[in-house]
């Protein structure tokens, strides 16, 4: 159901990207591919905002073991360098 202030857009995905999107939809329990894309856009926008402030690492922690990993996203790294 489209809202008044929404706009319909069409995307063309290669096979691998579409499979990844469908997997994200299922694993994230999203109701639609559009909802999956909207949530992904919000996350990406939040990360871009932080990168512009100079933050350039994403650290994830396993709550059971406390082990941490650093995620490197090249486009955010370059955005972080431009913000400095």
SSE topology:
Blueprint: H1 15-27, H2 33-52, E1 58-61, E2 68-71, H3 74-83
Antiparallel strand pairs: 1-2
Helix pairs in contact: 1-2, 2-3
Approximate shape? globular
Q: Number of helical runs? A: 3
Largest sheet: 2 strands, antiparallel
Q: What is the gyration radius calculated from CA atoms?
A: 16 Å
Low-confidence stretches: none
pLDDT averaged residue by residue: 90
The span between the termini is 42 Å
Strand percentage: 5-15%
Overall number of strands: 2
The percentage helix is 40-55%
* Strand arrangement across the biggest beta sheet: 1-2
Write the H/E string, N to C. HHEEH
Structure report:
By secondary structure, this protein is mostly helical. It is 51% helix and 10% strand. Helix 1 crosses helix 2 and helix 2 runs parallel beside helix 3. The protein is globular, with a radius of gyration of 16 Å. The mean pLDDT is 90.
Q: What's a concise summary of this model?
A:
By secondary structure, the protein is mostly helical.
For the structure shown, list the relevant keywords.
84 residues, mainly alpha, two-stranded antiparallel ribbon, 51% helix, globular
């Amino acid at each position: 159901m489209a809202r008044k202030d929404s706009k319909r857009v069409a995307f063309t995905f290669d096979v691998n990207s579409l499979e990844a999107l469908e997997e994200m939809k299922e694993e994230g329990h999203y109701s639609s591919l559009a909802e999956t894309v909207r949530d992904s856009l919000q996350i990406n926008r939040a990360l871009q905002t932080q990168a512009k402030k100079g933050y350039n690492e994403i650290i994830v922690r396993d709550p059971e073991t406390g082990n941490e990993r650093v995620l490197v996203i090249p486009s955010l790294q370059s955005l972080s360098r431009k913000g400095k």
